[in-house]
Specification:
The chain has three helices and five strands. By secondary structure, the chain is an alpha+beta fold. The chain has a five-stranded antiparallel sheet. Strand 2 and strand 3 form a beta hairpin.
């Protein structure tokens, strides 16, 4: 699907978090304001809920972030970029783990321009 839509897959990374259960990650994604800065100290610069999951539902939530993505690179999101939780119709792969979170960014013209997929 990603190729048909001419999307560019920039990076695919796998991390192992020993001792962290799926239930713990489920909690984290719904409560990011509590641990976002601890997840990547120094890299995660800003976090706030635009539409909090406890008010709009997990799948309709939106948060604003800015992150340092590497030495010498500009801060992703600048003063803040809205990250929208997306439905699985945006999921670009044919294989998934049991937990999937698809998030994306829309520009000022409401065009879909960036996506991150987390699976655990």
């Amino acid at each position: 699907m990603a190729q048909e839509k001419e999307w560019v897959l920039q990076s695919q990374t796998q991390h192992f978090l020993p001792g962290v259960s799926a239930k713990m990650l489920d909690w984290f994604w719904a409560n990011m304001e509590k641990g976002y800065y601890l997840w990547a100290p120094g890299s995660h610069k800003r976090f706030s809920w635009v539409k909090a999951p406890w008010e709009y539902g997990f799948g309709n939530s939106v948060h604003m972030i800015s992150e340092s993505v590497g030495k010498g690179s500009p801060v992703f999101g600048g003063e803040g970029i809205e990250i929208h939780r997306l439905g699985l119709e945006y999921f670009p792969f044919t294989y998934a783990l049991s937990h999937v979170l698809v998030e994306g960014v829309f520009n000022d013209k409401d065009e879909f321009v960036d996506m991150t997929v987390h699976m655990w």
